[in-house]
Amino acid sequence: MQDPTRLKDEGTLERQLLSRLEEAAPPPGERERVGVILDARLHALGAKRPWFSRTAGVVGLACVGALFLGSGFWLSSSGAGAVRTTSAITPVTPMVEPASAPVPAASAAPVATVAVDPEPATIATDPRQSARPNAPPSARTTSSVAASAAPPTPSVAAEEVGSDLRDESALLARARGELRAGAPATALDTLADANKKFPNGALSQEREALTIEALSRSGHTIDARERFDAFARANPESPHTARLRRLFP
Amino acid sequence: MTFDEAYRTHFDYVWRTLRRLGVREADASDAAQDVFIVVHRKLETFEGNALLTTWLFRICMYVASERRRSASARHEVADEALDPPSTAPNAEEDAQRKQELALAEGMMDSLTDEQRAVFVLFEIEEMNGDEIAEALEIPVGTVRSRLRMAREAFQAAMTRAKARSEFAGAARSAVKER
User: Fold this and answer.
1) Would you say residue A204 has pLDDT above 70?
2) Do A21 and B38 touch (CB under 8 A)?
3) CA within 13 Å, CB half, B168
4) N or C, which terminus of chain B has less Cβ within 10 Å?
5) Do B123 and A8 touch (CB under 8 A)?
6) Rounded distance, CA B24 to CA A70, Å?
7) How far is A142 from chain B, CA to nearest CA, in Å?
8) Average pLDDT score over residue span B131-149
9) Which of A114, A35, A61 is nearest to B39 (CA)?
């Protein structure tokens, strides 16, 4: 029996609609950005070494600072601070695998690790946990200490850093929700609160991006424009700059 | 093939496939990570007697199906709040394309996961019935019956969309005449 004629060969509308599905493609740079995040996830799941590090030089670790607004989770790097943050993003749903494939031994539970040593520390968290007040605390914090440069109570310091990051992330998630709900003024209040509590927070770039968007949406276009120009000058490669540019063509 | 090579070569394919299988744009990169986590674990078991894309497609099917089910259970709707209307010079054309894409995706949503996979492989990937049967490890007769039902559902959805569009056009004309 022969295959039927393809729909796109049958009619104009069919062809037009199917071509829209064909055109869908990832945004420029998405492969590199996701690669950095995936690297962190695989590392957290016990991968022997960061596989993406060989290409990290191409994209730069700035990609780690990407804020994945559409999915509602936060990734950030402080830039100037001694603490670098990455997000070990876990799927919202349990991983589903082909029935024929063997079940992997590695645990998929999100694990937060904090390394306190003379080098910049790396923190992996699941900020979505903090954005859900009722979510079970699945993140576990461990620390390793390098003798000379370690603070007196590294585990406490590390937990404080992680706790601050979660609180800051939760505030920004709230502001984002308010903005999405069409309440930019409320979002600005929340962002001001975040600025007061975490003036040098690890997510300051994300906070500023949200502030600019909230200002624009609440009609403070001149303020928004000025802040965007400053933001774009300071962070020309930031994914937020590219996104915000659509507001200020 | 190493994982690194698989990722570099096939990230775009995985992302596009997930979108065609009904994963929302905002979730596509997250879902692609899920796919590559599986690939990372299983690449050694990939025997190479099938195309890598076929293997990836099947992983995408499972991940997309789970994501769609989970999104549906949470009654999620598309989040456009942070995607402001474009003001670029070709904004009208962009808007038109987005509208058509949304329409096509809505029509695809009327298919079951199994129908959708066959439909995508046949209509978009342009594989033939035998190739699809081999890729999905199902009899070719099943491929044809799923394809027939998928096309019927797609065309029925298109008829409904046309009718709605004509109704909306007529309503606008009536308002103008008043």
Assistant:
1) yes
2) no
3) 6
4) C
5) yes
6) 10
7) 24
8) 93
9) A35
- Mean pLDDT for B77-105 is 66
Please tell me whether residue A27 adopts helix, strand or coil conformation. Answer: coil
Task: Quickly state the pLDDT bin for A5 (edges 50, 70, 90).
Answer: confident
Q: Yes or no: say if A6 and B123 are a contact pair by the CB < 8 Å rule.
A: yes
Distance CA A187, CA B129 (A): 53
Nearest C-alpha in A relative to B129: A3
CA distance B51 to chain A (A): 16
Residue type, A11: G
When pLDDT is averaged across residues B30-56 and rounded to a whole number, the result is: 87
Nearest-CB residue to B124 (from A21, A94, A97): A21
From A46-60, A219-233, B31-45, B120-134, the region with the lowest mean pLDDT:
A46-60
B104 contact residues in A (CB cutoff 8 A): 17-18, 20-21
Q: 3-state class of A145 per DSSP?
A: strand
